[in-house]
């Protein structure tokens, strides 16, 4: 696999996702970091996005509910280069009926080498990092040569 350097802008496109039992923790975390989040473009799965908008008054691009395909929508946005940071408070103690979608989303975040936080501690570390608020270069798969050479 070939890689290329991708520049992440100082204004990030952040996906916010939380399982039902983790929504209160994500809302509290977002409230704590309201002023920092307000500087970025926010995307969220359905219920989570509605709750963030209602509680914090932030503009959020609301996708459909995770179990109905919202996780896959975010995954597609990652693959298209439209999401560069994932905050996903997932519940490690409860089985999720859409677990394959969740694994696919986390896999895409790893493939495209975007920062991922899965709990308040890692999200705090991420958003308070000096790297979070400046342009940042990361390696990403280079599919341009693949697309140019694939059979039609």
Automatic annotation (TrEMBL):
Residues 6-152 form the MGS-like domain. Keywords: Lyase. The active site is at residue 71. GO terms for molecular function: methylglyoxal synthase activity. GO terms for biological process: methylglyoxal biosynthetic process. PROSITE patterns: METHYLGLYOXAL_SYNTH, MGS. It is an enzyme of class 4 (lyase). GO terms for cellular component: cytosol. Substrate binds at residues 19, 23, 45-48, 65-66, 98. It catalyses: dihydroxyacetone phosphate = methylglyoxal + phosphate. It comes from the Bacteria. Its EC number is 4.2.3.3. Catalyzes the formation of methylglyoxal from dihydroxyacetone phosphate. Belongs to the methylglyoxal synthase family. This is Methylglyoxal synthase. It comes from Parendozoicomonas haliclonae. The gene is mgsA.
